[in-house]
Amino acid sequence: MAHVEFWFDLASTYSYLSALRIEAAAAARGATVAWRPFLLGPVFKAQGWETSPFNLYPAKGRYMVRDMERLARARDLAFRLPTPFPQNSLKAARMALVGADRGWTAAFVKAVFVAEFQDGADISDPSVLAGVCSKLGLDFRSILAASEAPDLKQRLRDATDEAMRRGIFGAPTFVTQDGEVFWGDDRLESAFDWNGGPKKERSE
Length: 204
Known about the structure:
The chain has 204 residues and is α+β, with helices and mostly antiparallel strands.
């Protein structure tokens, strides 16, 4: 059975698109998905950037917004860029990691993305995250407390460090069982098909 790691930042526009369709893509191929939250901020800083490249390069940022509008429309999804952008995804990412131990990460991540990129909500606001948890029948207070434990905070730092070691520089990124890296929502299917297809012999 094919297996793909889905690396995402909860502030990432294109990760929103991937999160809402990756499970269907996996199911169609009889594959499995590992949801891997990490933070793009440290990754950007390692490249000398203090914010998203969509903010650093205004023309690129304008293109991204229009591209997201087109893609969302084609998929019958709403899209609204939240203010500020990018959002501070630290709290939400930590809570998503708590869910990894309890079986609800996927549902939580999708709900956070919907709140952020459909409703324009500020996902750094605890009340927004509390609302997400309430809709999912989750205990916000206990999850928040677990997310603030030192070992959980370290797990997120470790995940971000692991992402950089593995050559991940943006989100979404998909990593196959043999370590092949695919970047971008438009490479989602390619990641699964790489796992499922025959491997070519490499020439020396």
